[in-house]
Amino acid sequence: MADPKGFLTTPRREWPRRPVEERVRDWDEVYVPGGLLPIISEQADRCMDCGVPFCHEACPLGNLIPEWNDLVSREDWRAAAERLHATNNFPEFTGRLCPAPCEAGCVLAINQPAVTIKNVECAIADKAWEEGFAAPAPPDRLSGRTVAVIGSGPTGLAAAQQLTRAGHTVAVYERDDRIGGLMRYGIPAFKMEKHHLERRVEQMRAEGTRFRTSTTVGQDVDAAELRSRYDAVVIATGATAWRKLPVPGRDLAGIHQAMEYLPLANRVCEGDLERSPLSAEGRHVVIVGGGDTGADCLGTAVRERAASVTQLDIYRKPGSERDEESEPWPTYPKLYRLSAAHEEAGALVTAPAAEADARLFAASTLRFEGDEEGRVRGLHLVEVNAERRPVPGTERTLPADLVLLALGFSGPDQGDGIIAQLGLELEPRGTIARGPDFATNVPGVFAAGDAARGQSLIVWAIAEGRAVAASVDRCLTGGTSRLPAPIGPYDRPMTV
């Protein structure tokens, strides 16, 4: 603990964002370049090095947060990077994309603003690359065993890296033309620039991991045949079956799923397209869904210069303070948070019908209306109460010629053939069934990440990848493994 009084004398300061007018004109990350390092050491000083650090419990990765906070406060970046990478394969991803449940579990957060754990993590990760502390770590010898990982999202990449470093020969199969899963085409570049992803992929290649892109297992390659060619298979395809909105007018043209819209914008940033076929430019956009994916659509539509953008959230507007009865510390509370996209929409007044930041809370979609050509032109909504029942007399219509559905995902896509070809058993909710060792009902086949857990956070995805790697390693080596297993398949976030 470098400064025993740091949490008393130093206020919380976060990585500053670039001015709204500047950042909405490009796709670069929203933060001020170089603006983190000048403040991060004193922010790390705010960590109290608690005897019982609940930030460990709040993070499924078991990150050694007080340890690397202390090292950062002393500017020992190499040691901090070692402690950070001991539990997290990709801290530059989580430092940018995770909503930071660790900060909700910070002991300081009981009565003060939490330590900026997420910013410290990001600073360590970036410094590690800058100083060469993230060199490839190939195995000393090969085991002679082979593993196929299906899916290159955070779960698949974490599992592949752990198994490669353990000495197994690993091939990652990805249906898209580039590695990364939703991190590549689902997450906008203004949240995480793709060079962070490219560096990790190159590191993994140097360690020995092999990548097979533009290969859809279940169609281009039979899943059962793939199983026969490898000693083990890890299914990490994610939860890609999007939830639907069964209301009148849903079939009108101009209504799309968020994951039809976001990948096209990302392909423009990659240079594959000059302009997205679903560009929001000049259009009245309504986003149905109040989560992070909806916010990603909001920030993207703002940068595409939409005529207006409104986001509908069926939940009531949360408060700015934790409700100690329903969401006591150290659980992750539902609070009113202003993401970069909402800040932009509020400053630019993209939604005149909304209160401040483009969101309409407690709003439920009733139906869509279209024109004579079958294109959507309006969305009818109604205010709902806490039980999500319509409030009489509150119906109104928003202009809409592009509607984006950001309602989340229900489980893995069963149309790709993997589940049927392998004969995998499913849970009632549609996810892949597995035992306490992450193994499915098919010998040698393991399931991890959102495909088995259901839609979750990136820290849970990476934790699943690390944990399934330990199970696969035990299977291949006869019952022992030196790989860490931070969680079990039935572990869940802390709740009341």
UniProtKB/TrEMBL annotation:
Keyword Nucleotide-binding: no
Domain of life of the organism encoding this protein: Bacteria
Domain 4Fe-4S ferredoxin-type intervals: 36-69
Keywords: Amino-acid biosynthesis, Glutamate biosynthesis, Oxidoreductase
Coiled-coil zones: none
Any Pfam family hit: Fer4_20
Pathway, per record: Amino-acid biosynthesis
InterPro entries: 4Fe4S_Fe-S-bd (IPR017896), DPD_II (IPR028261), FAD/NAD-bd_sf (IPR036188), FAD/NAD-binding_dom (IPR023753), Glut_synth_ssu1 (IPR006005), Glutamate_Synthase (IPR051394), Helical_ferredxn (IPR009051)
The protein's name in its UniProt record: Oxidoreductase
Provenance organism: Streptomyces variabilis
